[in-house]
Design brief:
- By secondary structure, the protein is α/β, with parallel strands linked by helices.
- It is built from 17 helices and eight strands.
- It starts with a strand and ends with a helix.
Length: 412
C-alpha cells in the first residue's frame, strides 16, 4: 500500500494502541451499520474464494440512496446485529483469509478518526472502542499531544478538512487559538471540572456577542483576558452561588433520552448501564421528579462524589479528546455556542448515568464500570448523528439552550 510523508498530530495514548481482537469485550463488528467504500466493493466482486465469494455476493449490498465513494455499500447484519463475516472467535473472516488490504476503509481505520487541518493530519480515536477508552481515560496525567513527520497510508480516511490560513475572514481564522484555549481551560486543575465547563461556556457566550458585533479580530484579546483571569483565580467568583437543581437536570435528560429512542438501541452493554442507572435512582414511570431527585442527591453524595473526587481526570480526558477529535468549536460553522451545548449534553448524560450506576453499585462502583458506561454510551449515542441533531432541535425548541440552562445541567 502506498504511503506519503505528512506532518501528524496525535494524542499520546494513540502510541500505545493495538487492537486486542477476540479478547475485546465489545466487538466493533456489531451493533451498527458497516459501510463499504466503492473501491473495496469492486475488489469484493473480483474475489474467487470458494467460501467467501458467494457470501460476499449475498451479504454486501449496494446502496440506493446517499451514495458516495466512501458510502457505496454496506454489510448485511445477522439476527444478532453482527457483521455476517464475524467468526465465532470474534475475528474478521475477510481479514483472516484475504488480508487487511481487503478490509473496507471504515473497518481498516476504526477506531481511528482523522481530520486534515492546514495539511496537518490530526488523528485520534473514538471512545466507542473499549481498549481506546482505557488508554485515553484512565491516565491520571493531562492528555498530551505529539507532532511529528510520519509516513501515512494514502488510504487513511479523512473525516473533515479545515484550512484556517485563507483570505476569508471568518471564525476559522482563529480555530487553533480557540481550540487550544478550550483544552487549556478543561485541563486547568486549579478549578473543579464543573467550574471549568461553566467558565468555558461564559467565554463562548461572550464570543458569540463579539461575532454579532463584528469584533472578529478582537478574539485574541478576549482569549488573553480570560487566560489572565483564569490564572489569577478571578473566574471562580460567584460560581459557588449558582443554584443546584437536580429536578431540572433529570427532566432535561429524560427529554433527551426518550423511550422511542431507547426502543431502537441494540447495544446490550449500554442497556445494562442504563438499567443500572434507573435502578440506582429508583426511577419508575409513576414516580414524581421530586422523589427521584432525593435518590439522585443520595447517589451523588454517598457514592458518586467520593469516587469522582479521585478520578475527575477521566471526564476531563473524555472532554479533551472530544474537543480535539471534533474540531471544537468550529465543527458547526459559526454556531460556536451550539457546539458548546452539544459538549455539555454529552457531559451531562454521562454524569447522570454514572451517578445512577454509582447509586446501584454503591461501594462496589469501580473504574471498569465507568469505562463500560462511557464506551457503550459513545458507541450508542456519539455515533448517531441524526439523534444528536434531534437533541439540538429539542433543546432549541424548548428554549433550553442558554448559558443559564447549561450551568444548571453542569453543576451538582
Amino acid at each position: 500500500m502506498s504511503t506519503t510523508k505528512m506532518t501528524t498530530l496525535i494524542p499520546q495514548y494513540m502510541n500505545s494502541f493495538s487492537c486486542i481482537g477476540s479478547a475485546c469485550e465489545d466487538t466493533c463488528c456489531a451493533g451498527w451499520q458497516v459501510t463499504i467504500d466503492k473501491s473495496t466493493y469492486k475488489k469484493y466482486g473480483r474475489v474467487r474464494d470458494k467460501e467467501l465469494s458467494p457470501l460476499l455476493n449475498k451479504k454486501v449490498k449496494k446502496k440506493n440512496v446517499d451514495v458516495s465513494p466512501e458510502n457505496y455499500a454496506s454489510m448485511e447484519l445477522d439476527s444478532k446485529m453482527q457483521c455476517s463475516f464475524l467468526s465465532e472467535q470474534n475475528l474478521c473472516r475477510i481479514q483472516q483469509k484475504l488480508g487487511e488490504s481487503f478490509l473496507s476503509h471504515v473497518c481498516a481505520t476504526y477506531p481511528r478518526t482523522s481530520n486534515l487541518v492546514n495539511n496537518i493530519l490530526e488523528t485520534s480515536a473514538t471512545m466507542s472502542c473499549p481498549e481506546i477508552a482505557r488508554l485515553a481515560l484512565l491516565n491520571p496525567n493531562k492528555m498530551e499531544f505529539d507532532m511529528k513527520e510520519e509516513s501515512i497510508h494514502i488510504r487513511n480516511m479523512v473525516i473533515n478538512r479545515l484550512q484556517t490560513d485563507t483570505e476569508i475572514n471568518d471564525i476559522n481564522k482563529y480555530f487553533w487559538e480557540l481550540r487550544s484555549f478550550s483544552i487549556d481551560v478543561l485541563q486547568n486543575r486549579t478549578y473543579y471540572l464543573w467550574e471549568r465547563l461553566i467558565i468555558l461556556g461564559v467565554f463562548y457566550q461572550k464570543l458569540e456577542q463579539y461575532l454579532q458585533d463584528g469584533m472578529l479580530d478582537e478574539i485574541p484579546h478576549l482569549i488573553s483576558m480570560y487566560m489572565s483571569n483564569l490564572g489569577e483565580g478571578r473566574l471562580k467568583e460567584g460560581l459557588d452561588k449558582l443554584p443546584t437543581q437536580y429536578t431540572f437536570q433529570l427532566k432535561v435528560i429524560k427529554e433527551i433520552i426518550d423511550k422511542h429512542f431507547l426502543h431502537t438501541i441494540n447495544n446490550q452493554r449500554y442497556l445494562e448501564c442504563f438499567n443500572e442507572t434507573l435502578q440506582g435512582l429508583q426511577y419508575s414511570d409513576d414516580c414524581e421528579f421530586d422523589e427521584i431527585s432525593v435518590h439522585y442527591d443520595e447517589a451523588y453524595n454517598d457514592y458518586y462524589l467520593p469516587f469522582i473526587k479521585d478520578h475527575e481526570y477521566i471526564l476531563e480526558n473524555y472532554l479533551v479528546n472530544y474537543v480535539y477529535k471534533n474540531l471544537f468549536p468550529v465543527a458547526r460553522g459559526n454556531n460556536l455556542f451550539e457546539e458548546y451545548v452539544m459538549l455539555i449534553v454529552h457531559y451531562s448524560m454521562i454524569k447522570m448515568h454514572l451517578i445512577g450506576m454509582a447509586g446501584f453499585r454503591k461501594n462496589e462502583f469501580k473504574l471498569e464500570h465507568v469505562i463500560k458506561m462511557i464506551q457503550s454510551y459513545s458507541k450508542t449515542i456519539e455515533h448517531n448523528p441524526s439523534y444528536l441533531q434531534a437533541v439540538i432541535q429539542l433543546l432549541n425548541h424548548n428554549g433550553i439552550n442558554t448559558m443559564t440552562h447549561m450551568a444548571v445541567l453542569i453543576k451538582n
